[in-house]
Recover the amino acids of this structure.
C-alpha cells in the first residue's frame, strides 16, 4: 500500500489525513488547534502541523504530501526568511478602507470604473479579505515593515516551504487556486500583476520586481522533496505536491467537476462552482478564482458561517442536539422572527462594518424555538444570496453539495433545500479539504493526466418544496439594515 497525506491548515485548526494512494481508503487522521484571532504568527501553524503529524503516527511510511490552506492570509518574509509581522487572515476586516482606496485609485477616482478595471485585471474586485488590501493596510500603517519585505506568500505556500526546509526564498511555490485569491494574480494569463502590487505597496515597479513571489506550479507539479523540519523529523522521502487553497481543495476532495457547485458552512460560508470559463464580476461579490485542476472556481464567500449557529446555541444555553430539536420544532418562518446574521461584518454583500439584527419580535413569537430557527434560516438565506451572486455571472446552478462543519447540524441540513430552493446532496461528514490535498498528493506521485477517482459513499439527496416567503422576509430585513447604515453615513 502506497500512502499519501493531505493537510488542511484552516483558520481554526490543522487537520491531516493519511490515505491509500490507489483507493483513497482512510488509514489514519489527526488534528491540532490554531489560536483564535484574525492576526496569527505563522509559527503557530507550523506548531499545529507538527502536533497533528505526531498524533497521526508520523510520516515515515508516507510517500507524498500536499498542503491545502486558508486563503488570502498575508505572510511577509524578510531577506533571511524570517516572518516580519503576524499574518493578517482572510477574516481580518481592518483593510476595508484600503480596498475602497485601491478601487478608487485604479479607476482614476471613479469607483465604478475601478471595480470594472480590477475585475478585468484579476477576476476579482478588492474586498477586505483579499491579500492585496492587507498589503495596502500595512503600507499605510506600518511602512517600516514594507521596507523589509523580501518575499510575500500565503499560508499554504509558507507551510510547503517550511516542509522543504531549504530556507531559500526562491524555493517558495504556490498554485493557481491560492494565487488567484491574492488580488495581484491573473488566473487567465497565469501571471502576477506586479503593477497592482506596486500600487498596493506605494512602491515603484522597480522596487516590487525585487520582491520574491512564489513560483506558480501546475495542478500536479511537484514542489520538490521534504527536508529537515527542525524537530528531528527527516522528510527527505516525501514528495511534496503544489498545494491549493482550501476551497479548491474541498472541490477536489468532493470530486466536483465542471458544472457542479458546493455550499460550505465552515468558519465562513462559501459557494464555489467549478467552471470551464473565468468570471469577471465588477460588483465584487463573486471572486474569479482558479480551481486545483486547471479550471476556474467562481466563488462567493460570506464572513459569517457556522459560527452563527454556535452563537445562537450559546445564547440559548443548550447543546447541539437540543438546538437542532428547537430549530426543527418551530414552524417555517420562525413565527415572524428574522435574523440577518452579519455578526462579523459581511463580505457578501460587502458590508465589513455591519452588525446583525433580529427583527419581527413580539410577545408571542420570541421563544427559544423561533430564535433557533431564525438563526438557521438567516444563515441559509445568506448562502442563498451568495448562490444568486454566482448565478448572476452566468453560472447555471441546478443542485448543490452541502459540506463544512455547519452541515453536521441536522437543522441546517434539513432546512437547506427549502430555503436554497434546490436539491441538496449531503455527503457523509469528512475532512474534504484535507482529502482534496491527499488526492493532489497522489496525483503528483503518479503524474497521471487526471486526479485519481477514489471510491466514495453516495450522498443523501435532500429535496422539498421551496419556501420563498422566508427569503422575502429576510430580504426585507436586510434592506432595513442596509438603509439604516446609509442613513448613519
Amino acid at each position: 500500500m502506497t500512502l499519501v497525506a493531505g493537510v488542511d491548515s484552516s483558520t481554526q485548526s490543522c487537520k491531516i489525513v493519511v490515505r491509500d494512494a490507489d483507493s483513497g481508503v482512510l488509514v489514519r487522521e489527526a488534528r491540532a488547534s490554531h489560536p483564535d484571532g484574525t492576526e496569527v504568527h505563522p509559527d503557530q501553524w507550523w506548531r499545529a502541523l507538527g502536533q497533528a503529524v505526531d498524533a497521526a503516527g508520523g510520516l515515515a511510511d508516507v510517500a507524498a504530501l500536499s498542503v491545502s490552506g486558508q486563503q488570502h492570509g498575508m505572510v511577509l518574509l524578510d531577506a533571511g526568511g524570517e516572518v516580519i509581522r503576524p499574518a493578517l487572515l482572510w477574516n481580518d476586516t481592518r483593510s476595508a478602507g484600503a480596498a475602497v482606496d485601491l478601487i478608487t485609485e485604479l479607476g482614476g477616482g471613479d469607483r465604478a470604473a475601478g471595480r470594472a478595471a480590477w475585475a478585468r485585471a484579476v477576476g476579482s474586485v478588492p474586498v477586505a479579505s483579499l491579500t492585496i488590501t492587507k498589503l495596502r493596510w500595512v503600507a499605510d500603517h506600518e511602512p517600516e515593515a514594507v521596507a523589509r519585505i523580501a518575499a510575500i506568500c500565503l499560508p499554504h505556500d509558507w507551510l510547503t516551504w517550511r516542509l522543504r526546509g531549504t530556507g531559500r526564498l526562491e524555493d517558495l511555490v504556490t498554485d493557481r487556486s491560492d494565487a488567484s485569491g491574492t488580488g495581484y494574480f491573473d488566473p487567465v494569463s497565469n501571471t502576477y500583476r506586479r503593477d497592482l502590487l506596486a500600487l498596493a505597496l506605494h512602491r515603484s515597479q522597480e522596487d516590487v520586481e525585487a520582491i520574491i513571489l512564489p513560483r506558480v506550479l501546475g495542478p500536479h507539479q511537484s514542489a520538490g522533496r521534504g527536508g529537515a523540519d527542525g524537530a528531528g523529523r527527516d522528510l527527505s522521502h516525501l514528495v511534496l505536491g503544489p498545494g491549493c487553497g482550501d476551497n479548491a481543495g474541498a472541490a477536489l476532495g468532493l470530486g466536483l467537476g465542471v458544472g457542479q457547485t458546493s455550499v460550505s458552512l465552515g468558519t465562513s460560508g462559501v459557494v464555489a462552482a467549478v467552471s470551464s470559463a473565468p468570471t469577471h464580476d465588477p460588483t465584487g461579490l463573486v471572486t474569479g478564482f482558479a480551481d486545483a485542476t486547471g479550471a476556474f472556481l467562481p466563488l462567493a464567500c460570506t464572513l459569517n458561517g457556522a459560527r452563527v449557529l454556535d452563537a445562537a446555541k450559546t445564547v440559548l444555553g443548550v447543546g447541539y442536539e437540543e438546538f437542532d430539536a428547537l430549530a426543527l420544532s418551530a414552524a417555517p418562518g420562525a413565527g415572524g422572527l428574522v435574523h440577518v446574521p452579519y455578526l462579523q461584518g459581511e463580505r457578501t454583500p460587502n458590508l465589513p462594518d455591519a452588525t446583525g439584527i433580529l427583527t419581527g419580535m413580539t410577545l408571542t413569537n420570541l421563544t427559544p424555538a423561533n430564535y433557533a430557527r431564525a438563526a438557521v434560516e438567516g444563515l441559509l438565506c445568506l448562502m442563498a444570496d451568495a448562490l444568486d451572486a454566482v448565478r448572476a455571472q452566468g453560472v447555471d446552478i441546478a443542485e448543490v453539495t452541502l459540506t463544512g462543519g455547519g452541515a453536521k447540524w441536522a437543522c441546517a441540513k434539513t432546512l437547506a433545500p427549502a430555503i436554497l430552493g434546490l436539491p441538496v446532496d449531503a455527503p457523509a461528514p469528512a475532512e474534504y479539504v484535507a482529502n482534496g490535498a491527499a488526492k493532489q498528493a497522489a496525483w503528483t506521485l503518479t503524474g497521471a493526466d487526471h486526479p485519481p477517482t477514489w471510491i466514495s459513499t453516495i450522498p443523501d439527496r435532500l429535496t422539498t418544496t421551496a419556501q420563498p416567503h422566508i427569503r422575502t422576509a429576510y430580504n426585507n430585513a436586510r434592506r432595513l439594515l442596509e438603509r439604516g447604515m446609509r442613513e448613519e453615513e
Summary: The chain has a mean pLDDT of 95.
